[in-house]
Amino acid sequence: MAEWSCRGEFPRCWCCYWAWLYCFRYGSRGGGIGKIGADKNRENPNGKWTLDQWTSNFSIQNKVYVIIGGKEQKGGPATRDIDLSGIYSAPRNSENFSRYDFPSLNANRDPDGTFKNQSFFIKVYNGRKYCQAAFHIVQRGKSIHWGRGAVGNWP
Fold first, then answer.
1. Residue 32 has what DSSP assignment?
2. What residues form DSSP beta bridges with 39?
3. Cα torsion for 34, 38, 40, 46, to the nearest 10°?
4. CB neighbours (10 Å) of residue 81?
5. Confidence tier at 1 by pLDDT (50, 70, 90)
6. Between the N and C ends of the chain, which has fewer C-beta atoms within 10 Å?
7. Who's near 79: CB < 8 A, 6+ residues apart?
8. Is the dihedral of CA 22, 26, 32, 38 positive or negative?
9. CA distance linking residue 151 with residue 123, whole number of Å
């Protein structure tokens, strides 16, 4: 599981990950998710909470850096990596929220040349109340390792 840090009342806050997918779920008290990253949540624009995700991604495939959103994935400082095009559920008048992401690379084309280290920082906050997690993915070919904390090494 992820490395957690929470402040305030969070009845449920957890993160899980499987080979190709991670999910983040939480239960907050009061208002629901109003913003996803910098964008208003269309389902709950007056919500009091913000969901944010920042990542740092170093990825090589076919001997070149992977390009996502026009940017070469060379690692470095974390950047915001969340918008309304992701898979999420944040309905109006609900204290429950979930987000799913599929960060692994398709290694079928070049299993020996697929190399990825990615750090995730995900946070739900409302002023000084928050719940956040840090975890990572390390991928070599078709093999994937998930782990606690933002820094990962191949096991």
1. -
2. 36
3. 30
4. 21
5. very low
6. C
7. 54, 55, 56
8. negative
9. 17
